[in-house]
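Worked example 3 (structure in, sequence out).
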């Protein structure tokens, strides 16, 4: 007797040409918007640093350091999520209160 197919292990259909095009268009759009937002952020923070007395490379390094920390923090959170780890202090994938609720 043949068992019914397990929906969790069913083969994933190949994406259509339209799906591929949509994915590429979304990626290009996100990259473009991120570039614009990064340029505006850099310009604003450099002007802010300059207005507060930083000049030369200090004024240029300030926005790079701030945005760099944000990028690294986002990548660490993404890596933790993909590895099944929760944020720092959450005691693993679920918080202590969530584990207590699950235990009954």
């Amino acid at each position: 007797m043949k068992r019914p197919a397990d929906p969790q292990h069913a083969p994933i259909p190949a994406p259509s040409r339209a799906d591929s095009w949509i994915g590429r268009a979304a990626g290009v759009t996100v990259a473009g918007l991120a570039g614009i937002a990064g340029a505006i952020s850099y310009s604003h923070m450099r002007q802010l640093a300059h207005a507060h007395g930083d000049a030369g490379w200090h004024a240029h390094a300030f926005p790079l350091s701030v945005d760099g920390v944000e990028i690294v923090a986002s990548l660490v959170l993404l890596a933790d999520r993909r590895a099944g780890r929760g944020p720092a202090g959450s005691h693993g994938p679920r918080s202590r209160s969530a584990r207590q609720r699950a235990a009954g």
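Notes: Residues 17-51 form the longest helix (35 residues). Residues 18-86 form one domain.
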